[in-house]
Amino acid sequence: QMAAMEPERQLLIDRARLAESAGRYEDMIHLGRELAEYGTKLTAPERNLFCAAYKQYVGQRRASLKKVDSVLEMEELIPDVEERTWKVEALKEYRGVITGEARITCEEAVRLVDSSLLPLENSSEVRVFYLKIKADFKRYASDFCEGPERQLVADEALATYQEAFDLAAQPGEDGLAPTNGSRLALALNFAVFYHQVLKQPDKACLLAKAAFDDAVSMMDQLEDEHYQEASTLMRTLRDNLTAWTNQLMEAGLGAD
């Protein structure tokens, strides 16, 4: 039966790749959803395609929101009260449309991981990958929430990142090596979450430094195919760590 379905599945993947190259991210998430709901495990390229579909679509909305907020900031300086009022209200309404689209898409990505993808997997590496995706989209969703709801979504992201981190860091064969791409990508995004969402730069630095230090001594044991991925992730970890450490030092100096 799988063999009979294979051409249809391949067509889904080809269409998703075409949609990505054409910048048609809305089409891409429709195809990514179909792929996730196929009822079978995804291959590594399919997992990456599913993740990219939702990430690109939400990324567009995050960029749009920054632009709208920038314009909103300027419009709030208009001296004429009447003109300022209607322009600001129109922008806030438009902002609501963007945040609504993004939140629905984040929630769908999380739902598909929970209901269609994670239940099929026993592999620690793949489960870490999916838990990271789930946490990432909770993190993105927090950008589109305010007040208590934002805190609730951030708490859910924290719990999911921690679940993935604990799974990756298990001792022995159940866990992932410190140089494993999924483990490094998780550490990178978990640290970003601490820095950007929870506003805890000290914890972000500790997490990034531990991940970097654990991996650096094992890099010479990697084969070429894994070395490139690990070295790219570690370079980003190091760059973030340097920038965050400098910010902490400047904040410390400024407080004196």
Question: What distinguishing features does this structure have?
Answer:
256 residues; 80% helix; globular
Q: Summarize this, please?
A:
The protein contains 9 helices and no strands. With 256 residues, the chain is an all-alpha fold.
Question: Would you mind describing this structure in some detail?
Answer:
With 256 residues, this protein is mainly alpha-helical. Helix content is 80%, strand content 0%. The chain contains nine helices and no strands. The protein has helices at 2-21, 25-36, 44-75, 81-117, 124-142, 147-168, 181-196, 201-216, 224-255. Helix 6 (147-168) packs antiparallel against helix 7 (181-196). It is globular.
- Class per helix and strand makeup: mainly alpha
* Average pLDDT: 91
Helix content: over 70%
How far from one another are the termini? 70 Å
How many beta-strand segments? Answer: 0
Query: For the CA atoms, what is the radius of gyration?
Result: 21 Å
- Poorly predicted regions are none
Topology, please?
Blueprint: H1 2-21, H2 25-36, H3 44-75, H4 81-117, H5 124-142, H6 147-168, H7 181-196, H8 201-216, H9 224-255
Helix pairs in contact: 1-2, 1-3, 2-3, 3-4, 4-5, 5-6, 5-7, 6-7, 7-8, 7-9, 8-9
